[in-house]
Amino acid sequence: MASMKGQAIPLDFMVGLFIFLILLAYFIVLWNIFSENYSSHSERVERELSAIVLSDQLVSHTGSPENWTESPENANSIGLAIRPGVLDSNKLCALFGMQYGIDNCTSAGLQYGYAKSIFGLDKDFFVKVESPDGVLFATMGEQPENASRAAEVTRIAMLDGSAVFLKVQVYD
Q1: pLDDT by residue (tens digit) across 152-165?
Q2: I need a labelling partner for 132 at 20 to 30 A (CA). Which of 30, 40, 106, 167 fits?
Q3: Residue 1, in any domain of the structure
Q4: Which of 119, 75, 116 is nearest to 94 (CA)?
Q5: Mean local confidence (pLDDT), 115-144
Q6: 44-56, pLDDT tens digit by residue?
């Protein structure tokens, strides 16, 4: 009688292989689902972080150099504040140009592409300054068509003694 040592019974081997392949396919499908969820979550977080950083830069910082309005093309960073939470109408004029309710503004404003590069954004953005009752002072960029892929941050600031909302949207 021959020894059966070290030999696999084909039926046992096929059942084990079948179970292994089913488990492997299950984990591959799960991997794809979780990697897509992680990717979309990380993109959303990146948009939100960009919107927060941009709104903070505009409302809380004076810009670099502080008198960047004299030659905006040489600015290292752009900020609209005289001090945190208080906006300077001259800086709004230099950034947005002759728009809406900015008095005595003769500037053409910055080009969108240049502003995007100075803000260090690789995504599109939309900035709007308006009063609490909806009077629009300035905008830059275009509002996103798909709001579900946009992150929005609204900051309250003072402009010429009145409260204004500075809204920043960053989107793909």
Answers
A1: 999 999 998 999 99
A2: 106
A3: no
A4: 75
A5: 90
A6: 999 999 999 999 9
Q: Is residue 2 part of a domain?
A: no
Q: Is residue 6 part of a domain?
A: no
8 Å CB contact between 150 and 170? yes
Say how far apart CA 107 and CA 93 lie, in whole Å: 6
d(CA 166, CA 157): 7
Q: Is residue 157 part of a domain?
A: yes
The pTM of the full predicted model, rounded to 2 decimals, is 0.77
Do residues 128 and 170 lie in contact, with contact meaning Cβ atoms separated by under 8 Å?
Answer: no
Tokens found for residue 122: 């690789």
How confident is the model at residue 98, as a pLDDT? 62
CA distances to 42, 59, 107, 111, 119 from 53, in Å: 16, 10, 26, 20, 9
Q: In which residue are the tokens 């990717």 written?
A: 39
Predicted pLDDT of residue 172: 85
Q: How many residues does the chain have?
A: 172
Boundaries of domain holding 23: 13-171
The more confident residue out of 51 and 107 is: 51
In the chain, how many domains are there?
A: 1
User: What is the 3 state secondary structure string of 30-49?
Assistant: HHHHHHHHHHHHHHHHHHHH
